[in-house]
Fold each of these.
Amino acid sequence: MPYVVALALTLAIEVPVYVVALRFRSAWALAVAVNLVTHPAVWLLLAGGASIGYFMLVELAAWMVEFGLLWAVLRRSSSILFAAAVLANSLSCLAGLLLA
C-alpha cells in the first residue's frame, strides 16, 4: 500500500475517534497533527516487514507518543486521552493489517 493511501486510511479512521472522544471543535486538527508526528515514523520503522514483537513495540510506541502529545496540549483526564489513543490506533492498525 502506498504511503499516501496508508496515511489517508489512518486519518479516516483515527480522526473521528479523536473528535468523538475529545469533544471540542478543533479536535480534528489535533488528531491530524498527532498522526502527522507518529505515522511517518511508524511507516519507516515497519517498512519491509517486521517480527510480531517489533511490530507490537512500534505500535505501542505510537500509542504512547500520541497519548503524550494529547496530554501535553490538552492537560485533560489522562484516562480518556489514553483510551482514545489506544482505540484510534487499534482500529487503524487492524484496518491496515486487514488490507495489507
Note: The radius of gyration is 13 Å.
Amino acid sequence: KEVITGTQDWVYEHLGALFWVVELWSPNKEAGIEGYKWIDWYRDHPVEDDLKLLKWSDEQCGGQAHVDWKPFLHPQLGQVEIGGWDKMNYWRNPPPALREREAARFPAWMNQIALSLPKLELLRTEVRALGPDSWRIRMAVANSGYLPAYVTKRALERKVVRGVMFEIHLPPADP
C-alpha cells in the first residue's frame, strides 16, 4: 500500500503536536468532478475531466485559468512553448474573484479549533504578606478546555511537554 505523508505527520509523530492543512479550494469540484481521490486522479484521470476543467476555465474564469500554448522565443533557451494552467491562481488558490467567498468559510472552522484547545482559568488567588518585602501567593487553576493541557498523548510519549508554568512580572521598584 502506498502511503503519502508530509510535514503534518512528522510534526505529530515527533512533537505530538496537532497540525492542520487547510485545503479550502478544489477546482475539480467547481468543474463538477466528483468521487475521486486527489492524488490518484492527479496521476491519471479521464480526458472528460480535462474537458470539464477547460469548460469551467472558460465559463467561470474568463479563460484565465488555462491559456492556450503558444511559441515563445526565450533569450537563453531559444524556442519554447508557454501556456497551460495558472496553478498558483486557479489550482492551489481560488481565482481572485472567488477568494473572498472561499476564505469566508475559514473563520468558523478556525473558531471551532480554538474552542477545543486547552484553556487555563484562574479559579482563586490568595495573597498574604509575610514581611515588608515578602509575600505568599497561592493560586488555583483549572483547565476548562476540551483538550488536556498536554493536548495529545503522543506529546507525553515523546516527552516534549513541559508542566504548566506561571510567571509574575512585577513593575520596577521605586528608587
Note: The longest strand covers residues 120-129.
Amino acid sequence: MKSTFRKYFQSVISPDEFEKFCAFIRQEKNTENILNLMETEWNKQPDNQDTVSSNPLLYQKIQLAILQDENTVAVKRLKLYAFATRVAAVLAIGLLFTGVWFFTQQNSFSDSGFLQTVSIPLGAQTQLQLPDGSSVWLNSGSTLTYSDDFSKKRQVELKGEAFFDIVKSKAPFKVNTSSGVVEVLGTAFNVQAYNDDEFSVTLERGIVNVTDNGQKQRLMLNPGEQVCLEQDKLVKNTVNTELFTSWKDGKLIFSREPFPAMIKRLERWFNIEIEHPGYDFGSLWFSGTVEGETLTEVMDMICKAAPVVYSYNSKDRKVKIEVKEERTK
C-alpha cells in the first residue's frame, strides 16, 4: 500500500490502483495509520515546501458530502490543508462516519499553461476560493478548470453547475461552457451547463453578459433575470433566483417543477438513478423544499402527492417508480 500512496502523491496512479486505494481508505478503521502513511510519503516528495507556499488554494473551506447510510447524505464544512497542488486529490477522512466522498484537485498542462481541475462527485457539493479571492460553489457531478495564470486572465471552464461570487476587478471574469460564455466584472450568478441539460445563467447580483458559443447572440442580464438556451437560441426571463441558487445552501426548492426535471435534480442530489418505466409522468408537477431529508423521506412525500409507489435497490443505488394499482372493491 505504501507504493500506492507514493503513486497517488506523484499523480501517476492508474484508475484501477486509485479504485483500490479508495477502497482501502474506506475500509481502514485506524485513520491514524492512514494519516501517518500520507505524511511519510508526502515528506519524500521533492520541492513540496515551494509548492505549498506558492499556491493560494492550499488552505480553503471544502464542503465534503459524507455518506452516513444508504439513504442519508450529510454535508460537513471542514477546513483542510492540502498537501500540494501537484497531489492528485485532496483527501479528507471521516472519523465518525461510515463512508467518504473525495474532493479531487488534479493538475495538467496545456498550451495555455498549467491547469488546475476541481471535480465534485455525484451527491456532493463544495465551496472553494479562486486565486483572485472569488468564491465558487460547485454542485453535484461538476468540474471546474482554470489556468495557473489566473490573475492575468480570469477564465474558468465549467462542466456541470456552479454559483459564482466574483470579486470586482478591471480584468473581466469569464465562464466558458460547451453552450455559451458568461462575462462579468464583479457579481454573483449561477451557471448550469450539464451535458444533458439546457444551458442557463441566473443572475443574483450585478450585471453579466451571456454569449452563445456561435457568437450569434449576446444578452445582458440584470438581477432577477435568467437566460436559457432553447432550440439554439438564448431566451431571457424574470425568475425567482432562489429556486436556482438554493442548492449551495443545502436546499432543493421546487415550484411547480415538472416531474422529469425534479427527477434529474434528485438523482444528482442523492447520487442515485430513478427509473419510471412504462408510464409518462410528464403531466405531473411538484412544489416543496428538500432540506436535510433522507432519500426515503423524499420518496415517501412523492408517493403521498402522486398515485405512485417505489422500490429502492441500495446495492445498485436505483429507485424504481411505478403507478399505484387501484384496488377493486
Note: Helices lie at 2-9, 15-27, 31-43, 48-54, 242-245, 259-270, 295-305.
Amino acid sequence: MNVVRKMTLLVAIISLLFCFSTINETYAKYNTSLEGKTNMSVARWHILVNNQDVRNNSSTSAELAPTFLGTEHIAPDVIAPTSEGYVDLIIDSSQVDVSFSYTITPDVDATSSVTDLIVTGYTVNSGEKIAINNGQSITDNIYKIDNVNLTTIRLYVKWDDSNNSKMTNEEDTNASFMNEQAKLKLNIQFIQIPN
C-alpha cells in the first residue's frame, strides 16, 4: 500500500507540474514589455520689451525718457510744467508659446530732474485711451490663441503742476538748469497664465 501511495503522489506531482507549465505558457503569451522614449517640445518664453530680453527675469525695470510733442507755447522734445507726452512700450511675444499676463507699475525715477511726472492714462495697440490714477498699475493678458506678436502700450505722462504737486515753483525753475532728463521708471512683470 505504501508503494501505491507513493505512485499516486508521484503522478499527482507530475500532473501538477504539467498543469503549472501549461498555465505559464498560456499566460506568457500575454506577458510583454515595451520601452520607448518620447520627445516633447518645451514652450518658448522669450519676451522682448523695446528690444530688451527679459527671458531670465520674471520682471524687469527700465528707465525710459518720455517723448513730448510740444504745444503752441512749449517746444517739442522738452518738458515744462503742464507738458504732456508719452512713453511707448513694445512687447514682442513672437517667441512665446504660452499665454501670459503683464503688470506695469510706473514711478518717477530717483534720478529724474522732475519728480512731478505722473501717468494719466494708456492705450493698447492704438486703442481707446484709458485714464488711470498716478501710481496705479496696469494689468492685462496676452493670449496665445489671439496670435498677437507685438503689443504696443503707450503711457501718457504729464508734468503735474497742480496744487497737489510735490515740487515747488522754485524747484520747477531749478529743474531747467539741471540739464538732465525727466525719467519715468517702469517695473514690468510677466507671469504665465496657467491652464
Note: Residues 45-192 form a domain with the Jelly Rolls fold (CATH 2.60.120).
